Amino acid sequence: MSTTLLxxxxxxxxxxxxxxxxxxxxxxxxxxxxxxxxxxxxxxLYWRALRWEDLGTVAGFLENPDHRVQWMADDPTVRGxxxxxxxxxxxxxxxxxxxxxxxxxxxxxxxxxxEGYQVNEQVIRQQLLTQTWYRTRSGWWVEPGQEYGVxx
Length: 152
Description:
Blueprint: H1 2-51, H2 55-59, H3 65-74, E1 82-94, E2 106-118, E3 125-136, E4 139-142, E5 150-151
């Protein structure tokens, strides 16, 4: 009986560490699913605002206030450039949290299908775009330079 207890005592810490690792893995998977839902909602709001030229809402997804002001001044939709007829978030891929990142920044890729036209062309085109987002403690933000996504 004492031999069995000794074996169990020696194996218990290993099993406990394995259980903790499994628990942490499950927790990270739940967190990624939750963050993917949050990001999907944020990206949908972002693209809906871009479609309706609600530039204040769109700029609210740019973390740096100076970048917001610059983007509002440079935005081509203000000057009558591109018009969006529709935008649909197709896929959201949230990366695991990097434990070495002191800022606790989580990155993600959003895939969006847009339909729109250049005002001077009047030809409707569909495109599939990818856009990089990142999450800090204060929320999800569009990566600077990714405001309109990157064509596939």
